[in-house]
Amino acid sequence: MFVNKEKKADLWKKILQKIDEISNQMIKGIKSIVQIDSVKSEPKEGMPFGEGVNNALIATLKLAESLRIETENVDNMVVNMEKGMTMLES
Question: How far apart are CA 63 and CA 83, in angstroms?
Fold first, then answer.
């Protein structure tokens, strides 16, 4: 896809502006997530790595949703996140 320099500069400006807007929320959310006791423990139904890891996974999904990041929960084992152009629509 060909984008002229002016449009490219405008796009970068929008991206950096959005990062500035969400950075505090993102940092606060990450600090909260890393405080969760997420050491692997005895598996439970729907929680292959235990309850603590599942709690961290759910918190990560909620943070991503609040930041309008598209997510995919892969078998309650990992969260795949993708931030596309929708981040600029607000």
Answer: 13
The boundaries of the domain holding residue 76 are 5-85
Long-range contacts of 59-64 (CB under 8 A, 24+ apart): 59/29, 59/32, 59/33, 60/33, 63/26, 63/29, 63/30, 63/32, 63/33
pLDDT tens for each residue of 51-87:
999 999 999 999 999 988 888 999 999 998 887 655 5
Q: If phi over 0 gives left and psi between -120 and 50 gives alpha, with beta otherwise, what is residue 81?
A: beta
- How far, in Å, CA of 89 to CA of 18, rounded? 10
Q: How far apart are CA 58 and CA 26, in angstroms?
A: 15
Spatial contact of 59 and 36, defined as CB atoms under 8 Å apart = yes
Q: How many domains is the chain built from?
A: 1
Of 74, 80, 32, nearest in space to 55 by CA: 32
Task: Classify residue 55: in a domain, yes or no.
Answer: yes
